[in-house]
Write a structure and sequence with these properties.
By secondary structure, the protein is an alpha/beta fold. It has a single domain (14-167), classed as Nucleotidyltransferase, domain 5 (2-Layer Sandwich), CATH 3.30.420.10. The chain contains five helices and five strands. A hairpin with a 2-residue loop joins strand 2 and strand 3 (33-38). The protein is globular, with a radius of gyration of 17 Å. The model has no long low-confidence stretch (mean pLDDT 87).
């Protein structure tokens, strides 16, 4: 009699972090694996990626960086596009019934003990600092072989996924 090979059990949790910006990304921490993607262009691709990541385990959780539609210092067109992306991601998570918590950037920064952005830091330096923090936390990730642009895009989502994991009791 031929014996069936046992499949290894699925990890119990999936922790997803989403940075909704045009240069944002989505990251899923699943067991010892890290799945990531730059923010897809189409609604269908966003939904497909989230569905795939969310179906990897029996208990997915999501933290989505909260966007305030009245953020000072940003142009109306840019803010409108960013807020549109944010609400689209909320809808995708809702449609897939993924438990989602919206956290402002200042809150997830605090939860990871990241000091606030300095007045002397431009966007490039600030994103570089967040990238450096993410790289120290996940030094073996294949992401670090990508371009600086990709690394900076994914680093925020990776840190947000880390907060998701911490907030939901993951080790």
């Amino acid at each position: 009699m031929k014996r069936k090979k046992r499949k290894p059990p699925l990890p119990s949790e999936t922790y997803i972090g989403i940075d909704p910006g045009a240069n944002g990304a989505m990251v899923a921490l699943i067991g010892g694996k890290v799945l990531w993607t730059e923010m897809p262009d189409s609604n269908t691709d966003i939904l497909d990626w989230l569905e795939s990541a969310g179906n990897c385990t029996r208990n997915p959780r999501v933290v989505l960086e909260q966007i305030n539609p009245g953020f000072k210092g940003s142009g109306k067109a840019a803010m409108s596009k960013l807020y549109g992306s944010y609400t689209k991601l909320q809808m995708a998570c809702s449609a897939l019934e993924l438990p989602t918590v919206d956290l402002p950037a200042t809150k997830w920064h605090r939860l990871l003990s990241i000091s606030p952005r300095k007045k002397t830091e431009n966007d490039y330096k600030w994103k570089g600092r967040l990238r450096d923090i993410a790289q120290r936390m996940y030094p073996k990730l294949d992401l670090w072989g990508e371009t600086q642009k990709v690394q900076r895009a994914v680093a925020d989502a990776l840190l947000i996924a880390t907060v998701c994991k911490q907030q939901n009791g993951g080790n």
